[in-house]
Amino acid sequence: MIGEKSGAHQYKLQGSVVEGGVMDGSATLTVFDPYVDADMKKLEQSDSKYARYLCKILGLYFNYHKDAYFTKGVYLHDPATIVAAVNPSLMTYTEGVVRVQTVGITRGLTVFDNTKKRYGEITAWSHKPTVKVAVTVDAPAVVEMIMQRLMMND
Q: Which of 9, 65, 77, 127 is catalytic?
């Protein structure tokens, strides 16, 4: 996980590494309390056919997170990106340049520079567009919103 817990179940970005996705020019940081087994059981017992279907296909994802991250839950990167678009007040944001490493041992690593530094020469950061990046997330509210939407009657 990137970040440290701060305040009422929110996480604040540390350093310059961001994990997330980019949508309509806005990158979102989606690091928060994982969606846990108890949430999965609620979905399984839901009347929503979509929630029940999701439970069937989430087994592999839960197993991956258990093996890779030693956690009993999954991170909701993609759903949190949608939540940011639907209710941006559940996150706070900053702006900066995002670059993704494409070669070497750091291939796939996303790097975020939110400094207002002016370089004396042209660099790989020069003249790049900025994006809005979420730096804190109200995790309980995001999980609650996702759960409510998934358990709505069909």
A: 77
